[in-house]
C-alpha cells in the first residue's frame, strides 16, 4: 500500500512550464532633426565685417554671393549698411546647421580678397581652409627689404605667385604684408613653405625646382594609391578560390588597368608581390 501511495504521489506532481523569453521592445526609429530643431527653434546668426576697400567690389558681385547662399544653402543673408556688416542667419528650410558656418567662411574669404569663383569652393567642399599669416611672422623686414620681399612673392606680373598657385592647387592673396592661402591642408603647407623660402631670400628658380620635386612626389603617391585600389579590385574580382595561386602576373594587372586608366605602364611596386 505504501508503495502504491508513493507512485500515486509521484504521478500527481506537475511539470512546471518553461519561462517564456522576455520580449524586447522594437528598435525605435527617429527622423533626423532639422537645423532649427537642433537649436531648439533658436535662430543662429553670423556677422562678417566689410573692410572699406572691399565695399565697392561687394556691391558689384552681390548677386553672385547672394544666389548660392540663399537658394542652395538655404541661409538668409543681408547687408547691414549702418554697421557695414554682412549678416547671415538660419531659417526653417536650412538642411544642415553647418551651412551657416560655410557661408560665413565664403563671405569672409571674399572680404580677404579672393574671387567669388575661387571662394565659392568653400561651399562645395569640406576639406578647404583659409590660412593667413604676415611677413613679419617669418622674418622682420623694414623699408626696401620688405618691398623686395613682396616683389619676390609676386614676381614679374604675378608670375611667381601664379606658378605656386598652379603647382599646389591653391589660391594666394598678397595684401600688403598679409598673405592669405585658400586650399586643402596639405597643399596649403606646400604653398606656405614656398612663400616662406621667398621671404627668407631664396631666388625664384630654386623655389621652382623644389616645387617641381614636391608636386611630382605628390602626383606619384596619388597615382600609386589609385593603382593600388584598382589592383585590389582586380584581385577581389578574379581571385580563384582554392587554387593556391599566391602570385599574380604583371601582364594581367596591366590589361585590367588599361580598361580603367590609361596608365598601364606605371604599375606600382606592390603589383605582383605575394598576397
TrEMBL record:
Superkingdom in the source lineage: Eukaryota
GO molecular function: RNA binding
Keywords assigned by UniProt, alphabetized: Nucleus, RNA-binding
Record's subcellular location: Nucleus, Nucleolus
SUPFAM superfamilies: Eukaryotic type KH-domain (KH-domain type I)
Ranges for region Disordered: 1-29
GO cellular component: nucleolus
Pfam families per the UniProt record, alphabetical: KH_PNO1_2nd
Biased composition (Polar residues): 1-10
Main location class: nucleus
Domain K Homology per the UniProt entry, residue ranges: 127-200
Family recorded in the similarity comment: Belongs to the PNO1 family.
UniProt-recorded name of the protein: K Homology domain-containing protein
Source organism (scientific name): Rhododendron simsii
Amino acid at each position: 500500500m505504501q508503495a502504491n501511495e508513493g507512485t500515486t504521489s509521484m504521478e500527481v506532481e506537475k511539470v512546471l512550464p518553461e519561462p517564456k523569453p522576455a520580449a524586447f521592445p522594437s528598435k525605435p526609429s527617429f527622423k533626423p532633426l532639422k537645423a532649427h530643431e537642433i537649436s531648439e527653434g533658436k535662430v543662429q546668426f553670423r556677422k562678417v565685417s566689410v573692410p572699406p576697400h572691399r565695399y565697392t567690389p561687394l556691391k558689384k558681385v552681390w548677386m553672385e554671393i547672394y544666389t548660392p547662399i540663399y537658394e542652395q544653402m538655404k541661409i538668409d543673408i543681408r547687408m547691414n549698411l549702418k554697421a557695414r556688416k554682412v549678416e547671415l542667419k538660419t531659417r526653417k528650410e536650412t538642411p544642415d546647421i553647418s551651412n551657416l558656418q560655410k557661408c560665413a567662411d565664403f563671405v569672409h574669404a571674399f572680404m580677404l580678397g579672393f574671387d567669388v569663383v575661387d571662394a565659392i569652393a568653400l561651399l562645395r567642399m569640406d576639406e578647404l581652409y583659409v590660412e593667413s599669416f604676415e611677413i613679419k611672422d617669418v622674418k622682420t623686414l623694414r623699408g626696401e627689404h620688405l618691398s623686395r620681399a613682396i616683389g619676390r612673392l609676386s614676381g614679374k606680373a604675378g608670375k611667381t605667385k601664379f606658378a605656386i598657385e598652379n603647382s599646389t592647387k591653391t589660391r594666394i592673396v598678397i595684401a600688403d604684408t598679409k598673405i592669405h592661402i585658400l586650399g586643402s591642408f596639405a597643399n596649403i603647407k606646400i604653398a606656405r613653405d614656398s612663400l616662406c623660402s621667398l621671404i627668407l631670400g631664396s631666388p625664384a628658380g630654386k623655389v621652382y625646382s623644389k616645387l617641381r620635386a614636391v608636386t611630382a612626389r605628390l602626383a606619384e603617391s596619388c597615382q600609386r594609391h589609385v593603382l593600388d585600389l584598382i589592383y585590389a579590385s582586380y584581385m577581389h574580382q578574379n581571385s580563384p578560390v582554392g587554387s593556391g595561386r599566391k602570385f599574380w602576373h604583371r601582364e594581367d594587372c596591366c590589361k585590367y588597368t588599361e580598361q580603367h586608366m590609361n596608365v598601364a605602364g606605371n604599375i606600382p611596386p606592390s603589383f605582383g608581390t605575394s598576397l
